[in-house]
Structure formats: C-alpha cells, structure tokens
Design a protein that fits this description.
Blueprint (H helix, E strand, L loop, with lengths): L12 H13 L4 H7 L3 H4 L1 E4 L2 E4 L7 H13 L2 H9 L26 E2 L2 E2 H20 L13 E5 L6 H9 L9 E5 L4 H8 L7 E6 L6 H18 L5 H4 E5 L2 H7 L6 E3 L16 H7 L1 H20 L6 H15 L4 E6 L7 H13 L17 E4 L2 H5 L3 H6 L6 E8 L7 H18 L3 H10 L4 H11 L7 E8 L2 H22 L10 H14 L10 H15 L1
Parallel strand pairs: 5-6, 5-7, 7-8, 8-9, 10-11, 10-12, 12-13
Antiparallel strand pairs: 1-2, 2-13, 3-4
The protein binds 6-O-phosphono-beta-D-fructofuranose.
Length: 553
C-alpha cells in the first residue's frame, strides 16, 4: 500500500540538505558549538513536567535543526501521527490500526474503529482487570484448597514479558507486597524450575500472557506449570483457580483449559511490544494495586497529548527521533547506548531493544524498496555506573562513536546518605567528558604539572587524549514513580513511531522473527526423532548430529 504524496526519502530537498550538512558537521567539534552560542542549552533543551530533556550535546546547530524540522513537514509526520490516533490502518503490511494510545485514553475520547468505540472496549477491559486485581490482592480469589494467592507467575516472552517485568522492577518501591510477582520467559527449563522451586502450588496464580497464544516457548512453559500444579492438585478443575490468560486468541486460551471469564482481552491493534498498558500489564497492577497502574497510564497519556499538540520544535519524541536519524542515518553512528543512572531502570535497555529494534530494525521502505540508507542503530546498554567500570573505555576512546541516552533522577526512591550525589556527579561528569574530551596539549600540561619527565609525557600523551565530540541526550526525571515512568516509556514509544515515518518503514510488523521460528519447529522434530533431514547446510547438519550423538551417550 502506498501513500499518495510519497517520494523516496532521499529525493526530498531536506534530506539532501541534511546529507550535505552531515559532511560539514563531521568536521565540527561540539566544544566550538558551545563556545559560539551562549544560548545553546536554552535552545536545545525542553522542560516537560517531571522530565528535563537536554539534547544540546549533539552534533547539531541551527541549520541542522531547521532541516530536520523541515523533514518532518516533507514526510507529513503530523498527518501520520494523526492517522495513528484516529485508528487508521497504518500497520500497512498487517492491515491493522495501531492503537496502544487508546489503552491510556484517560479522558475516554471516542475512537471509532470498524464501527465500534474502542474507548468503551478499553474501559470494559480495565474494569475486568480492576475487579480481578482487587479480588486477588484482597485475598478473595482462592486457590484450589481455599488458600489465598501469595505468588503470581507471569508466563510470557518478548512484549508479553519485557514491558511488565521492566515496570515491575522499576516500581518495586511502590509495591505493598500484597502478592509476590515472578516472571518466566525463557524456554530453558532452568528458569521455570528456579521460579517454582520455593513456591506452594496451592497459593500460586499463573498468568499465561500471549497475544497469539501460539508462541512455542510460552506454551511449553504454560504446560510445565500445569503439570506442576496438577501434581499437587490432582484435579484438572484446579486449573480454573490457578490460571488466567491475556490473549487475543480466545479459542486457543479456552482450549488450554482457561475459563472464558478469566481470559483478559487483547486486540490486534495493540502490538506486543506496546502492550504493557493493556491486560498484559496485569502483573504490574497486581503488584502495585490498580490505582498505581492507572497512574502509569496517566503518565503515558500526558505524553500522548504532548506528542499530538506540542509544536514540532518542542516535541520531545519528535526531537528524539530526529536526533536518532541524524546520528545514525546521516552521521553514520550505527549503535546507541541506553545508560540509566537509576537502579530502578535496570531493565530499560532490554525493554528498548525490543521496542526500537523489533519496530525499526528493517531495511525496506513501506513501498517494498530497499531503503539504501541506514535505519536505526543497534540498541544496548546497562546501568551507567556498572557500565563506567566495564565498557565506558570504549565510549570514550574507541574509533566507533556511540551516541548515548543518559537517564537519571533528581531524587532517589530509596535515599541512602551520601549515595545519590556520588551517583549523580558521575551522571553529569560522563556526558561532559564524552562531549569535551581532553586534547593533547591539556594532557601534556597535566602530566607536566604532576611532575612527569618529558620521555614519560611523550609516551603517555597519545593514550590519554580523549577526542570527545560524542553525542549524548540527557533525560533528567524528578523521581521515578508510576506517572513519570509512564511518561518516559511513552516518550520512547512515540520516538519509535516518528522514526518509522521519517525512515519510511513499517514499524508495527516483525516479519524478521518468522524465519528462525519456522526452522526451529522443523529442527525440534529432528531432535526428538532419529532423523537428521538433508536440507540443512553442512554446518547446521553437523551441529545437530554432534548434539544428538553426545546426547545419546
Ligand atoms: O516473535 C516475536 C514476538 O512475536 C514479539 O513481537 C512478541 O512480543 C513476542 O513474540 C510474544 O508474542 P505473544 O505475545 O504472541 O506470545
């Protein structure tokens, strides 16, 4: 499906201008850009409620920003954004609407899709969740032997795991521990064994979380969980007390044995990686209570409003997308680090890996042509302090430049005397160091001041030079809480949407995960039989043969 007024991105005047600007910008140093412009921070930072976004430490100037903003017009970004909010089928390859924003439509604005008001469906689903969450947390929901539920085990993978688990970890401080929440995502039996070992089946509730209810890994774990329960309950009717499902596939979930009343809705207009706001977020609501889950939705809704109404020049997700495009596609920096300086965000980079890489890790335009330009960087990261003592050497001095997002909080949720200032001094120091660097002259002067002899200075100087000029964004939150976390996640979600439009790629499918899934299904049959099929390449055949021969011994 094509969009009428479309041109290949590379033919747009703004795209061409940006390509030319990138060539000259490569010879600029940010130190000079700061020196030339006393207003740089004011110009290139946005103060949202609860979040300060500083993008001044990027290799940009007024002319780059003007062309990037012109590009948003040339690609009709605002139109596409409105189409998303208005339930048009912008998931072109799957012919679906993209409506995760409807899940946090807190003013319950009417959203018509296929003749139905989605807002009403969402409110009904939230009411279903609320009743269930209260029943479990207040101990009215009983296990097969009449005991209250103490432990929730969420079985799901990808979007049915990463979002809820990342949020549960980030908001641990806000849990009243009415229940303990655990996650099983890996089909490696080690994980489910470890999670279930200390638990009492009489008091465990499983959430089988799978939009499709066909994902092999999740179904395998769900079957193992059923066997574990039945070993103790000895009665299949116990499944109804101990299993609920979140799925768009009611048929499969019912066939699995889950009572239809205990199947929570999902819709095909919610992508898995954008689904934590739906019933996929049940473990979050069970852990924190429904009110706090709503605060999370409220935070995301605030950013939805910002994304829809803020001018492009002040629109944080749009700016984030433009900077990523500038860094990756135009300047050629093909990797990006996510560096939280808040312990609560320790799963953020894993979450964003799926959100961004599964959405935009593609190389074909929505017209089916090769893009011919780099699309999105590979995303990776780790808690900042741990990273500093592991891979920051590479960030500071390797010849591969890795732009980074630094994310920190003014207040810690668990203050311990003397810790937060040490943490945050590193947070501020690192973006400064990555930007300013230290040149040879300064290195030599420093070594001399320390009394080093000329031969030692000559030897050490080249190793101690930091070229700097490494782009970073800073997102400084007031404090992590359900609302600010909702804001933060929604900023990245809309960044990813805007990136997709700028790059002219379909952000809401994931065909690239299918090939491996299909091959694995065939290979599993081989692993379970005596056969090794001839169709593999010699490497794969011999790996399988080796595996089977060792296994038989
Ligand atoms: O294989 C990738 C994927 O489809 C993701 O997009 C999705 O989040 C994950 O698997 C889990 O899918 P489901 O919720 O259908 O089990």
């Amino acid at each position: 499906m094509t969009h009428s007024a479309e041109t290949n991105r590379t033919n747009l005047p703004s795209w061409k201008a940006l390509s030319a600007l990138a060539e000259s910008m490569k010879n600029q140093h940010m130190n000079d850009l700061f020196a030339m412009d006393a207003q740089r921070f004011d110009k290139f930072s946005i103060n949202l409620p609860n979040i300060l976004f500083d993008y001044s430490k990027n290799l940009i100037d007024d002319s780059v920003m003007a062309e990037l903003l012109q590009l948003t017009k040339d690609v009709d970004l605002a139109d596409w954004r409105d189409k998303m909010f208005n339930a048009e089928r912008i998931n072109l390859t799957e012919n679906r609407a993209v409506l995760h924003t409807a899940l946090r439509n807190r003013k319950q604005k009417q959203i018509l899709f296929d003749g139905e008001n989605v807002a009403e469906q969402v409110e009904q689903a939230l009411a279903h969740m609320e009743t269930f969450v209260n029943q479990v947390r207040q101990g009215q929901w009983k296990g097969y032997s009449g005991k209250r539920i103490t432990d929730i085990v969420n079985i799901g993978v990808g979007g049915s795991n990463l979002g809820p688990q990342m949020v549960t970890e980030a908001l641990k401080h806000y849990s009243d521990q009415s229940v303990n929440v655990h996650y099983v995502s890996n089909v490696d039996g080690a994980q489910i064994t470890e999670v279930l070992a200390p638990l009492n089946p009489e008091k465990v509730l499983f959430i089988v979380s799978s939009k499709t209810f066909t994902t092999t890994e999740t179904m395998t774990n769900a079957n193992t969980a059923t066997q574990w329960l039945l070993k103790s309950a000895n009665d299949k009717s116990a499944i109804a007390n101990h299993f609920v499902a979140v799925s768009a596939n009611i048929k499969n979930a019912t066939e699995f044995g889950i009572h239809p009343d205990n199947i929570f809705s999902m819709w095909d207009w919610v992508g898995g990686r954008f689904s934590l706001w739906s019933a996929i977020g049940l473990p979050i609501a069970l852990d924190l209570g429904f009110d706090k889950f709503i605060e999370l939705l409220d935070g995301a809704n605030d950013i939805d409003e910002h994304f829809q109404h803020a001018p492009m020049t002040e629109n944080v997700p749009v700016l984030m997308a433009l900077l990523s495009l500038w860094n990756c596609t135009f300047l050629g920096f093909k990797s990006q680090a996510i560096l939280p300086y808040d312990q609560t965000l320790h799963m953020l980079s894993a979450y964003l890996q799926q959100a961004e890489m599964e959405s935009n890790g593609k190389s074909v335009t929505w017209n089916g042509e090769k893009t011919g330009y780099a699309t999105v960087p590979s995303i990776w990261g780790e808690l900042g302090i741990n990273g500093q003592h592991a891979f920051y050497q590479y960030l500071h001095q390797s010849n591969n430049i890795v732009p980074a997002d630094f994310i920190g909080s003014v207040e810690s949720v668990t203050p311990v005397a003397g810790h937060h200032e040490t943490l945050m001094s590193n947070f501020f120091a690192q973006t400064q160091a990555l930007m300013t660097g230290v040149n040879e002259q300064q290195v030599r002067a420093d070594l001399k001041a320390k009394g080093r002899v000329p031969e030692v200075i000559d030897k050490l100087a080249p190793h101690k030079v930091h070229e700097g000029n490494r782009p970073t964004n800073t997102l400084l939150l007031t404090r992590i809480n359900p609302k600010t976390l909702g804001q933060l996640i929604a900023l990245y979600e809309h960044k990813i949407f805007a990136q997709g439009i700028l790059l002219q790629i379909c952000s809401f499918d994931q065909w690239g995960v299918e090939l491996g899934k299909g091959l694995a299904a065939d290979i599993e049959k081989e692993l379970l039989s005596d056969e090794v099929l001839p169709q593999h390449d010699s490497s794969t055949t011999n790996l399988i043969k080796f595996y089977k021969s060792v296994k038989q011994q």
